[in-house]
Design goal:
- By secondary structure, this protein is α+β, with helices and mostly antiparallel strands.
- It is built from 12 helices and 18 strands.
- The chain has helices at 7-15, 34-49, 92-104, 127-132, 138-142, 152-158, 189-193, 231-246, 284-305, 324-329, 343-347, 374-391; strands at residues 22-23, 26-28, 55-56, 62-64, 73-78, 84-86, 109-113, 176-184, 197-203, 205-214, 218-219, 252-262, 268-269, 272-281, 308-317, 320-321, 336-338, 353-358.
- Strands 3, 4, 5, 7, 8, 9, 16, 17 and 18 form a 9-stranded mixed beta sheet that branches.
- Strand 3 (55-56) and strand 4 (62-64) form a beta hairpin.
- The N and C termini lie close together (11 Å).
Amino acid sequence: MSGGIAADDLAARLAGLEGIGETPEGIVRLAWTPEDAACRAWFAAQARALGRTAEADPAGNLWAPPPDAPAPWWGAGSHLDSVRGGGRFDGPLGVAAAFAIAERATVPVAVLCLADEEGARYNTPTFGSRALVGRLDAAEAVARTDDRGIALGDALRAAGVDPDGLARAPEWLARLRGFLELHIDQTRELATAGRAAGAVSGLAARLRLQVDVDGQADHAGTTPPAERRDAMSAAARLIVAAENAAGRGGAIRVTASRILVAPNALTTIAGHVRLWLDARAAGLAAVDGWLDAVRGEAAAIAARTRTEIAIHVASRSAGTPFDPRVRAALGGGDELLSFAGHDAGVLAERIPAGMVFVRNPTGISHAPAEAVDLGDAAAGATAMLRALEELAA
């Protein structure tokens, strides 16, 4: 059996990413940018230090396979891209841990960096892992544009990825027997329990709604209340109603995540609002029941405000349980349920997969205040190392 992972090892690896995309507002390493390219160069350097060659698959996912062992292998890793104004650990911690694990494992372990997990530039979350499992609508994705009007297809070409080859990405999945991911806990659950790390049972069910509210743009000062068809007022009422329909216990987590207003003028009543609602729960029945309640509230609000409200289900996921054998190897017991999306959850649709969360004292993520004690991370990485040695035996 190999030795454990040391906190100093993780610190030394993460130090190589310092300065990349660091801003006063936090880390900004969006996919397919110079900052992303610098992170990919770090990955290649880490691979060379292990006597490996970094490879890119047709979706731009990076691989550092074991040089002297034929595929398939067990893999470990995470992502290196960030949200705007993110923290230091969401993603990179898992990749650094994977290199440390691969260096010490007595079995062959491939290291992976999945491309564009956050989707912050093109609203394409888990881009690379969805391409691997054949669940990426490539034609729709490459046509998307960022805030500067640059199409994803053009950004991929500039980064050395051929958009026309995305359909071949699933061929690479056969190289993996399974996949494990170490990730910062995005809640205070482990901190409250006094645990350094914990295995994850799976990903929660999720429902994302796009809501369009149509009213009538009119003068903010001269239009009497009884004559208004205020789309903003109706949208605000619907947001509150959606939160109330979820209840106060936290079993259903609802977020009004984005809102667009037209004409968005200081002295004009809003004529149209488009907003997105995100709901997550342990099971799909809970979010479907919540949706029924929201539809009823929307009808009542539309009648009261003289607006029209259309609700469209933008995405719906039943949730993803992780492989029982993987969970047992990771220790099982008091497991965590993840209410966030992760590459491991996408890959779990096709291959055995699992996750380990690392204690986050603040519970904050996707922000500069994100925090991890690397001693805790080393404990979680060591648990993953032991699990991989058992699973690959």
